[in-house]
Amino acid sequence: MSQKKYSVVIVGFGGMGHYHSTLIKKNDVLEVTGVYDVKQERLDYGIELGYQAYPNLAEVLADKKVDVVLIATPNDVHSEIAIAALEAGKHVICEKPVTLSSQEFIEIDAVAKKVNKVFMTHQNRRWDEDFLIVKEMYDQQSIGDIFQIESRVHGANGIPGDWRHEAAHGGGMLLDWGVHLLDQMLYMVDSKIISVRAELSFILGDEVDDGFISTLTFENGVTAIVEVGTTNYISLPRWYVKGTEGTALIEDWSMKGKMVKRNWDAEKVEPKPIQAGVGLTKTMAPPSEEATNTLDLPQPQQNSQSFYDNFASVIEEKAEPIVKNTEVLRNLRLIEAVFEAARTNQIITKFE
Predict the structure, then answer these.
(1) How far is Cα of residue 36 from the mean position of the Cα atoms in its chain?
(2) pTM for this structure?
């Protein structure tokens, strides 16, 4: 007996919509059959690729052959499309940020439960190898108990595209990249957040943030610094991680990096003073060659399924979602706390 294929229609066939279509081709259970977009040239492109082009959203939702609606539109219309699709009996995949407020997400989740359909947010950065390496170090205590994690993405191209410059459409870097980096941190560090500090950047003069820095303090003692910048002509490392027995560095998505760990077998040697500027220092003198070991980064533990395989398995009640709606809601509430901390210049201590 052949495996049932689930028909997927992509609503919003721009860059991300097309990207989804190329990835879904690698999946054995989901199949893109159609597209809908408000721009005719994108519909024409969908036809070129062999997809059915729908003239409006109503016809997508009325088509009984459609099992799944994948939403890849500007952020501000995610909620209304998702609710309409769920009420039409479709399962839904939605691009991030899934909504512009936690309350909107609560409303979507309530509809999904009522109609008994799967609703999942495409938090695909949980599958990034650089993140999985850090998660492996954290879980396995490769450099001891990790107490500080710095996660950054830096660029110098400003805010991309058109609608991402506008608050009404949910633009800005906190909602664009911050939603990924904060989700990674919450997925990795299983602990309550006890404080949130943040600053937003408006260097480029847009009405939305072109970057931000946020510091999260977890109840288990971990401090996380999360930063996004779009005016950085020299980028800081993607990850910088400190543990009780060593330090780890991942420079960028090429996975270039290392772990430097304390060598407990080495004889303790008192550091010798070095010239530092116009003074001397023992404190900042490098350790002796014997005092540390430089190691390769660990091999990451991959997620058990791809996002799309997991989504199909959840539809068939064969698996739990890797991206759970409770986790997405917590991330949205954290984003709201970051916005509030930056707006009020206050430390948020009652996030959860």
Answers:
(1) 26
(2) 0.95
Residues 18, 37: Cα–Cα separation, whole Å? 11
The DSSP call for residue 177 is I
CATH topology identical between 6-122 and 132-302+333-344: no
At 238, the amino acid letter reads R
Q: What is the DSSP string of 220-242?
A: TS-EEEEEEESS-SSPPPSEEEE
CB under 8 Å to 254, separation ≥6 — which residues?
none
Three-state SS at 19:
helix
3-class secondary-structure state, position 55: coil
Q: Where do the domains of the chain lie?
A: 6-122, 132-302+333-344
> Are the C-beta atoms of 102 and 332 separated by less than 8 Å?
yes
Mean pLDDT per block of 10 residues along the chain (352 residues) reads 81 96 91 97 96 97 98 96 98 97 98 98 97 97 98 96 90 97 98 98 96 98 98 98 98 97 87 90 87 93 92 96 98 98 96 83
In DSSP notation, 148-166 reads EEEEEEE-SS-S-SSGGG-
Fold of 6-122: Rossmann fold (3.40.50)
d(CA 293, CA 307): 37
Residue recorded with tokens 């062999």: 50
Tokens of 216: 């999260």
Helix (H) or strand (E) holding 69, with range, is strand 68-71
Q: Which two tokens stand for residue 282?
A: 């023992």
- Taking residue 236's Cβ as centre, other Cβ atoms within 10 Å add up to 14
Peptide bond into 97 cis (omega under 30): yes
CATH architecture of 132-302+333-344: 2-Layer Sandwich (3.30)
Query: What's the rounded Cα separation, in Å, for the pair 68 and 22?
Result: 16
pLDDT for position 271: 84
**pLDDT for position 272:** 86
